[in-house]
């Protein structure tokens, strides 16, 4: 066993400059491995200590910023400590020679990867430490969009820096892209259009995150505006993803920017009611509508507008200062129940589609008795 160890140590001594003998080589191995194991075992504790120091110096005034920094930095820093342990251990064991070069490459790649990992984690935070509760949705939408763009830039720069470590310069990469520039341009055409459309949406602000919009006859809540797509949560709970180009070129109805909602209904009452009853019902119905505090009383219309086939039609038209859809439906329920109660109190009967058939001649039936049948049937919607 000792002979094998001596042979290994002898080979390491000859391949590493600056090491005098096997004894020094053994000592370097022990110290190098000890340093690596120490950093590998206590990497989480070391990263926690460094993160704590960063939070107390860089973000000591904001608890939300401290939380974002801890979440973003802890894991990448643990990974970096492990890579650092490999590098320091190798530097102790082999400060020169062939072993050092690949480890140095791994160390450089580890630094780039750790920084990129931290930046992407930090960008993925909700930025609640930057955005206040009273900040407009426009600002929040812009921050989310720009953060997605920055993530792409971080990934591209990190990839170029990593390629640089392998001897592939960025100029060579762009030169290679230049050879197939036409093909790349056609391949990226849709991506560039969607990116520009995303900027147009952010700048023009036809809608913002959390708005309810109607596009292509479908209603959904805007969840996120990304580099290439806009994501909507539909009313059935599903998520629908639109390319930004489609959204920018479509007619959009922003339901969240409604200042009020329209109530426009037609009430059909039976033909048996006289003019006085109709007029009294219209007046009391108008008073009922004006009694609601949610109603815009500057434009309330209750009019007898039409003689339909089966009913006398009364049109009800007014605006309610209610924007949330759930609250509006609650108001409609209350209003319809009050209209029904008012009609019952005035003995007003609502009509429904009906037809009456009359026979031209009397019908002779059993015992030659003459009877006249008035046959009516009803058709329900």
List the keywords.
five-stranded antiparallel sheet; 55% helix; 17% strand; 381 residues; three-stranded antiparallel sheet; disordered C terminus; alpha+beta; 12 helices
Description:
It is a single chain. With 381 residues, the chain is of the alpha+beta class. The chain has twelve helices and twelve strands. It has a five-stranded antiparallel sheet with strand order 4-3-2-1-5. A three-stranded antiparallel sheet has the order 6-8-7, with helices on one face. The model is unreliable at 363-381 (pLDDT under 50).
SSE order = HHHHHHHHHEEEEHEEHEEHEEEE
Please give the count of helices: 12
How many E-type strands?
12
- Shape annotation: elongated
What does the largest sheet look like? 5 strands, antiparallel
Q: How would you briefly describe this protein structure?
A:
By secondary structure, the protein is α+β, with helices and mostly antiparallel strands. The chain contains twelve helices and twelve strands.
């Amino acid at each position: 066993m000792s002979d094998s160890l001596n042979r290994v140590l002898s080979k390491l001594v000859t391949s590493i400059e600056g090491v005098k003998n096997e004894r020094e080589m053994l000592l370097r191995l022990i110290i190098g491995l000890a340093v690596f194991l120490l950093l590998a075992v206590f990497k989480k504790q070391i990263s926690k200590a460094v993160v704590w120091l960063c939070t107390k110096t860089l973000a000591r005034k904001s608890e939300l910023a401290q939380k974002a920094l801890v979440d973003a930095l802890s894991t990448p820093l643990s990974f970096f400590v492990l890579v650092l342990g490999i590098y320091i251990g190798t530097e102790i064991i082999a400060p020169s020679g062939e072993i050092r070069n690949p480890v140095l490459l791994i160390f450089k790649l580890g630094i780039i990867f750790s920084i990129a990992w931290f930046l992407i984690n930090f960008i993925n935070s909700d930025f609640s430490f930057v955005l206040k509760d009273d900040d407009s949705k426009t600002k929040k939408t812009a921050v989310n969009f720009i953060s997605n763009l920055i993530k792409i830039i971080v990934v591209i720069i990190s990839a170029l820096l990593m390629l640089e470590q392998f001897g592939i310069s960025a100029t060579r990469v762009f030169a290679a892209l230049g050879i197939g520039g036409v093909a790349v341009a056609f391949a990226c055409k849709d991506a560039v259009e969607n990116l520009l459309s995303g900027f147009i949406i952010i700048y023009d602000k036809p809608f913002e995150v959390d708005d309810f919009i109607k596009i292509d006859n479908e209603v959904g809540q805007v969840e996120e505006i990304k580099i290439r797509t806009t994501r909507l949560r539909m009313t059935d709970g599903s998520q629908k993803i639109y390319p930004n180009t489609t959204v920018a070129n479509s007619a959009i109805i922003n339901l969240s920017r409604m200042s009020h909602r329209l109530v426009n209904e037609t009430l059909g009452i039976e033909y048996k009611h006289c003019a006085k009853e109709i007029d009294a019902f219209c007046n009391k119905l108008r008073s009922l509508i004006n009694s609601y505090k949610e109603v815009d009383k500057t434009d309330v219309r209750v009019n007898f507008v039409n003689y339909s086939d089966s009913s006398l039609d009364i049109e009800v038209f007014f605006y309610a200062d209610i924007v949330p859809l759930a609250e509006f439906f609650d108001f409609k329920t209350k209003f319809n129940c009050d209209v029904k109660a008012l009609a019952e109190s005035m003995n007003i009967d609502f009509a429904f589609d009906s037809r009456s058939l009359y026979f031209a001649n009397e019908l002779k039936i059993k015992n030659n008795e003459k009877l006249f049948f008035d046959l009516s049937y009803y058709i329900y919607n």
